[in-house]
Fold this sequence. Notes:
- The chain has helices at residues 9-27, 31-35, 54-68; strands at residues 43-46, 49-52, 71-87, 97-111, 117-131, 134-136.
- The strands form 2 sheets. Strands 3-4-5-6 form a 4-stranded antiparallel sheet, covered by helices on one side.
- The two termini are 29 Å apart.
- By secondary structure, the chain is α+β, with helices and mostly antiparallel strands.
- A hairpin with a 2-residue loop joins β1 (43-46) and β2 (49-52).
- The chain has 3 helices and 6 strands.
Amino acid sequence: MAAPITLKAEDKLQIIELSSRYDKTLDHRDIDGWLETWTEDGAIETPFGNSKGKASLRVFLTGYFEIARGKRHWTSNYMISVDGSRGDSNIGTANTTATIATMSCDLIVFKIEEIPTIFTTGTYVDKLVKIKRHLEI
């Protein structure tokens, strides 16, 4: 039986930084930077719509920018667990192993144009893949 996969502190920090990059690029309306946080087949499910794949995610985000105008996303209370690993010929060679993890955190979206107020709250639950030392949602 194989030993269980664990995450190092460095891995967890990279996951939190990925989440921060996701939020910052969203708040700064950086579509290309936001898309860099996603795998080619990444999917999003929100109250504002669902989307799968980078081309569809680009369309989704362009529409979401109007909702997000004047808002700031803030995340905290991270919980990160490893789900396993897999060999995947779609991510390089058949010998490439991707570590799969789940990250959940709380979300607060602030309205920041006037007096800062809470616009909404929620929870992110993301499936993450570390491919060749690079994390993506």
